[in-house]
Structure formats: C-alpha cells, structure tokens
Design brief:
Blueprint (H helix, E strand, L loop, with lengths): L1 H11 L2 H15 L8 H21 L6 H21 L2 H4 L1 H6 L6 H33 L11 H25 L3 H14 L7 H10 L4 H7 L2 H13 L17 H33 L1
Helix pairs in contact: 2-7, 3-4, 4-7, 4-8, 4-9, 4-12, 7-8, 8-13, 10-11, 12-13
Amino acid sequence: MKVFSRIRLLCTDYRELLFHLALKNLKVQYKYAFLGFLWAFFVPLCMALVFWLLFGVLFRRPIPPLSIVTALFVWQFINMSIAGSTTSIIDNAGVLKKVYIPREIIPLSIVLSNFVNFLLSLAVLILLIAFYTLFKVGYPFVPLRIVFLPGLALITLLMASGFVLLTSCLQVLYRDVKYIVEILLLIIFYFSGAFYDVDTFAPGAAAKGLPWLVTVFMLNPIYDLFAMYRSVLLPSSIPEMVVNISDYYPPFLMVAQCGAFSVGLFLLAYHYFLKQDRDLVDLI
C-alpha cells in the first residue's frame, strides 16, 4: 500500500528533515516568550480555572478541576495541531515550489512539535496530580493504569495527524476550509465534554426518555480521548475524581472505537493526501 511505503520513506530518508522542521517550529513558537514552554501549561490551566469557577462555583456543579485540566491538555494539542497546520502547505508554497520534499512533512512537523509540548505538559500534569493527592489523602500517588499512557498518546497522535493531513490538503483545494475548521473546532470543543462529563446530562436524558443521547455522546472520539486520559491519569479512589464509564457505556468498546477511528482516519486521510499530492504544488 502506498501509504505504508510513504511512511517508511519519511521514517528513513526524510526523518532528519522532519525532526529539524519540528525543532524549528518549537524554537519559533517560544523564541520571544519569557516563560517559554510553560505557556503550554498555563493556557489550559487558566481555561480550566475559568470553567471551574463558572460551572463549579457559580452554577454549583461538582466538577473536579483536575478533570477539566486533563481534558484541556488533550484538547490544546489537537486544537493547536489542526489550527496551525491547516494553512501550512500554502504558507510554505515558496519552499515547496523550489525543492521537492514530501508535502506532508510540513503539516506533520507542526503536529510533531505540538506533540512534544503535549508530552511535556503531561509530565507536569502527573506532578500536579501527585501533589494534589498528597494534600488530599496524605501521600502522592498516580493510578497503575498510567502504564497505558504511551499507547493512549499514540492514538492521540494518529488522530491529530489524520485531521491535519485532511484539513491541510483540503485547504489547498478549497480556500474556505480554514474558516470552516475554526467553526467546527469551536463546536466540537463544547460538545465533547472538556468541562463536563457524561454523568452531567445522562440522568436528565434518561428522565426525558432520551437514553440514546448518551450512546450518541459516547460515540464522539474526542470525548472518548478525554475519558480515557481521565481514567488513566486520575485516581479513581478519590471520590468524584473519575466518572465510572461502565455505568453508561462498555469501556472496552469505547477504547476499541476510539482506536479504530484514529487509525482509520489517519490511513484514509493519508491516502487522500497522496492522491491529491501531484496537484498541490500547482494549486498553491
């Protein structure tokens, strides 16, 4: 299959170029920022504080702050990857017209640089969870389920890469795509449970005879990511820290469908990108 041969090409002949571009993106991103990488941590942390004050304090809904922070770290990676990569091929038209390189290196390098930020923010989040449990129960700990974090990070990387390959290619073909992407990202964020969970509306949906709304909500792969990161990182032994997904949906099915969506999206988006590859330079 052409997709796998192209991936092998990127991992061998163009590996150094991919890493160099990702490193360049990181340097440019924080070149003049006094706090540097810490902004990747403070931005979702401040957003979580706003949502917690709004819903947890003002509207008195029991929302654990760390649950919001965990979801927002994941969302920031996906959002920044898509937002930063959608116009990347057009923005680098001068380079792509002068020298031949696989076009997908440009958007994928942005995903890779954001992924490095994401991994660093996860390390800070784990420390934050350890300090939280220290003050909550008297000793620091994180769940043993954290061993699944590398696999979960890989699923997240594949999902973000699939979205990016699709939007960056479509933006070359149709110049309105970046505006549609901005709207869709906003809609997806509010409907994916970053600052709430399935137990927030499930009882109300059941009382109104609409239990199928829970199933539809659980089919959202972005929420599935949020739920899996919360389950892997947050200690369920602390009351109200993690929602028991099994009360609403089979956990193994949630993991399977999210993993299948990520892999399927990546392969299909990459196949579509390669199909349009010859026309991209002419169109930009």
